Amino acid sequence: MYNPGFKFLWLSAKICVLIKMDNAVSVLNLRKRYGEVAAVDGVSFQIKSGEIFGLLGPNGAGKTTTVELIEGLRQPDGGEIRVLGVNPQDGLGRIQEIIGVQLQQTTLYERIRVKEAIDLFGSYYPHQLPASEILEIVSLKEKERSFVQNLSGGQRQRLALGLALVNDPKILFLDEPTTGLDPQARRNLWGVIETTRGKGKTVLFTTHYMEEAERLCDRVGIIDQGRLIALGSPRELIEGQELNAAVELSFPDGIEKSFLESLPGVNLVTQDGDRFLLYTKSPHKVLLKLVRLYDQGKLRFENISVRRATLEDVFLELTGRRLRD
Amino acid sequence: MSVFWKQTKMETKLFLRYKGTLFWNFVFPLFFMTLFGLIFGRDGGDVRYIDFLLPGMIVMALMTTCIQSTTISVVTDREKGIFRRLALTPLRRSTFICSLALTRYLIVLMQTVLLILVAMLLFQAHIKGNWFSFWLILTVGMFSLLGIGFLIASFVRTEESALSISMIVFFLLMFLSPCFWPVETLPKFLQPFSRTLPATFLGQALRKVSIEAKGFSSFGLDLLFLLGWLMVCFAISARYFKWE
After folding, report:
1. Which of A169, A246, B102, B118 could lock onto A100 through a cystine, CB 3.0 to 4.6 A?
2. Which residue among B6, B13, B88 sits closest to A101, beta carbon to beta carbon?
3. pLDDT in tens, B193-233
4. Which of A105, A111, A124 is closest, CB to CB, to B91?
5. Cα–Cα dist B229/B231, whole Å
């Protein structure tokens, strides 16, 4: 019993639900200029509820501006933003109650104690988590009586994260939360992000560490020069570019790039100094060919390694540049 | 309401935690009052110098709190991005401003009580007039000096310039208004200028009460001028004050 009318209704209901309910954040054709520079130039994406979404890109790509537009800190020149269905520019205070934000740099009063800061920020919200719980999450229990001015950089950053969590937010925005952290602190932060997702919350964070994004994110958007150049799950992006594996090596006698490109199975060749990267779906074929050529004395190479392709490779392919230039 | 009180309590604590503030806002006026009191305390005919000096020192203490400290803390917090961080919380700006003003008011009350106590115990100073009038003038005066603080903070961008500009304004007001000496002792050409300053209205109104024991009919006009200053300062600040 096929009824096209029924199917149409069902589909539109589904679309409505997708747009209205399932998206924690939706951004459409967002634009922001600073003088002559288009910091954000027509960016569109959606973040589903409960998702960890990473915004990646090199410094100055427009990540921070995008995030601050969504938070309502800045006013867009064009485009639409909805945070849980609300435009952050209207209904002042409504968005602020349900989001938690860690800015790229958070400065606090120097002479406030850690616990006092958490209590103070907590008092701004109708719902707040107990200070002891926050101190636990960001491991600052033993520092609760210290003045902010006496905290190390990493501890300050943890406090900033604690303040972002103080209202038990539905959406957590973290702007480069791991920049400048030591490996241990980075791991702790990853733990916090994963726990936050475990509670069904949405996380939007920016980073220029690709491996971090690959590990944590359900989906990523890669942004460069104010434009979104890729969007999807890390796996999708890597596989979509047919970059499954990368053979990295150098040739002491030099080599023609076109020769490498002509090798069977090689999808893409990039060069970084004297290092060449051959992307392929079948690394064994490429290796076999290279080894044969070596054996026949037709080619000399060294420092060869094979690895799985990463988001870094996707970025490199899309822009021709490394992330941390 | 609880947000407002918590914010005020924290602001007051933070205010009192800085050694620099404690020095400029409490030690500095006390030091000057004691010094000038010891040197000139016994001078004067009908009016003892200490009775003249006490309201002047209260005005000076008010100026450190309302102009210097306020300008510097507002500009510093803005420059450091604390206002930006607060903008991401549901804390309303009006709540923030009111608690900032109340904090300054509490500090001013502490300073005044301290100065009056020391002046009475050490130099047997007198406040002859009505205490309520004295308090009323103090309150209106404090808000109008706070207006000057906000006015400066509306136009100054960096901590460094806040420091120097508020210092200049503070010293100008201190020497041009009757903190240490009557307006009449200033050079003739400065007197008309001096008579328009809020610190002058405040000083002379306080003295009308504390020395001459006069009533509202006498200092009412001074209050009106102070309110005028207050409104002008806040009108300009409301137009030009930037949160970022």
Report:
1. A169
2. B88
3. 888 999 999 999 999 999 988 888 889 999 999 999 999 99
4. A124
5. 5
